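Researcher: Please translate sequence to structure tokens.
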Amino acid sequence: MGDGDDIRDEIRARQSAQAGAEAAIAAASAATADKPKSKEKFNRKFKPSKRYKSNVAVRGERLKKYSIVEALKLVKNMKGAKFDESMELHLLLGVDAKKSDQQVRGTFVFPHGIGKSKRVVCFAEGPAADQAREAGALEVGGDELAKKIEGGWFDFDVVVAHPGMMRVVGRLGKVLGPKKLMPNPKEGSVTANVGQAVREFGGGKAKYRVDDGGNLHVVFGKKSFPEKKLEENLMAFLDHVKTLKPVGSKGTFVQGGSVCSTMSAGATIDLGFLASQ
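Model: Translation complete:
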């Protein structure tokens, strides 16, 4: 047998092996196709409640803008939950919150309060500690209070600290930071006048801070408040917002906003009077 015959035989063998492999793949595919496919798992779709549907009907078109007065009236007329819901303001700001020079944070005392008292603990010693106790602080102390918090005690809403006590508070950054409870001078929670700070925060002084998406959220009262008080609280805060534009922020600062209650649909508010800020 010559070399040509050997080459032809080798080619035929390879073709036969390839055909066999293709047949095996086809058979496996057919067997897989015959098996019933398992159901794909999807996240549950949002199913609005009857109350939410009725609230949307009251609100009307989602993107329609309402005046402050109209929006508050709409939300108050929406069917509520079985508790006194908080009234919330949500703003979209023209900032890049990931840049340190475009952070928007601070505190604000609403003219009529927000209808909620807060539990305040204070790090202070000596006369400052006495002032904090007289102002109604839930706990006042130094190292012992720090150890209590390190041990897992978090039955409070705000932490106030005298500047001289930051040496103690500093070591709590890992436990207070993630819970957004770390006192900060920009928020007024690190101050020599701890008595006043305890009274203000205990009475509902609101803290606010822009999130990573440039959104600012704040509670400005309770649904049971008269519309006039809600309007005055809201307008006072919006006037305050006008002063917060960071130097690094370009273009329109307040780009949009809405109001809602804890369990209601939101009503978009017309913020044209802030557009030039």
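Researcher: Any highlights?
Model: Confidence is low (pLDDT under 50) at residues 37-43.
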